[in-house]
Amino acid sequence: MWGVTGTRGQPSPVTLGDRARDKGDWDAAAEHYRQALTRNPDNPPIWVQYGHALKERGRRLEAEAAYRRAVDGDPASADAHLQLGHVLKLRGSGEEAKAAYLRALALDPALADARRELAALGLGDREIAAARAALPPPPRRRRPSRITLADRARELGHWAEAARLYREALARNPRNAPIWVQYGHMLRQQGDLPAAETAYRRALAHDPRSADAHLQLGHALKQQGKTKDAQSAYLRAFALEPTRSEPLGELRGLGWTNGALEEVGRTFASTVGEASTSIFRPLVVVNLVEWETKISLEPPSIPTLARPIGIFVHIYYEELSDEIADYLAKIDLPKRIYISTTTEEKRKLILESFQRFGLDRVTEIVTVPNYGADIASFLIEASKNFLNHDICLKIHGKKSSHARPEFGEGWRNYLYQELMLGDDRVRAIVNTMLAYPDIGILVPEHYPGISPDAISIGRNYRPMSRILDTIGIDLLPDQEIRFPVG
What we know:
Layout: E1 2-4, H1 13-22, H2 26-39, H3 44-56, H4 60-73, H5 78-90, H6 94-107, H7 112-120, H8 125-134, H9 146-155, H10 159-172, H11 177-189, H12 193-206, H13 211-223, H14 227-240, H15 245-253, H16 258-271, E2 284-286, H17 288-291, E3 309-314, H18 321-329, E4 335-341, H19 344-356, E5 363-367, H20 373-381, E6 391-396, H21 405-420, H22 422-435, E7 441-442, H23 461-469, E8 473-475
Parallel strand pairs: 2-8, 3-4, 3-6, 4-5
Antiparallel strand pairs: 1-6, 1-7
Helix pairs in contact: 1-2, 2-3, 3-4, 4-5, 5-6, 6-7, 9-10, 10-11, 11-12, 11-13, 12-13, 13-14, 14-15, 21-22
């Protein structure tokens, strides 16, 4: 199966950059802003922030380049011209700095910083006015972004129009947690509470430590009469921002005393980061049918990857090594291969196979105890490398020794061909996962030779529910739960 790592649920690079900037950690801020610009280079305000971080670290030439990218992206931004002027002045380029300050002042005559810098360069009001008059007309501003237009519609109370514009913005960047919150607000204003609840949950999927998103989710749940779930959401908001008044007020309205709230605050303070804390009791009720969907694969163009694909393979039957290596060698994308097996002798034989296919430089092989089939090695050993990759492939050397040899071989061939039959197939899958950020796992259809009874969770439902409860997930009972058997 193909999957994505949990990194998408972390705060965005812009958020992390802002946090590092506010702490004065300029190296970290620069790195986070760089990551954000790698994802979306058409973001002039973030080029400005990137320039600030570089300038603070004394990397003035790089800062100048960043400010110039901001100016190129939004030539009508007075602030971008102003910041460019500052770094040019620091680099001793007085005439260029003067031109940048003049352009900033022409775009915003009230910009006192630009006027003060020009005065320091010896220009009085008459000289400034004459120089400004000699400048070419300022460029026309770009059409406001969808988010800007949505904000304006929201301020005018045009809820449906604002919702439409926020939705269009999210179609372009579905990882924007604050805009999911705004979209939820617009849906709530129109009375569509279930859709608003979904929007707030989408915000939390991308930024689970957003106190505001938990608070707004609590409001939507409360308005639907889901008091218990609303209480859990308010507790999470309170735990994340104990000084915020809104969740405290809501909890008091639900009967919580000051003493009880103080005790919860102390509990959180002493167990912060522990999944077992009572503040993080189960909040989400999951209907797996709503999670599943059939999709068409994207065209097999060459994808743009920020990091190599991680390929995780468990090989118990070492005689399948050549077959697996042949498939993986044909994946013409940046990749890192992690193999687990059960003995040192098998490890050596597998390495020889992968060397024959030219894969040894991108392959790591470890030995693991022979228990838990391929699952234990995947969760315990391979998981150490999950966060080194954005997109991953998991396979194993399947033989189905309990059945006829031709059945096991047919099943294995079907799964391998569905997951990695040639460049076009792999590229189409990777492009699909990049195009649909909500996808967590992509699995092939079940092998036609498998009985429908074999793909149900069956009597494992209750043990699975107990495990999921520890990480805050409740499953709806009596639902058909299928898993990617094979």
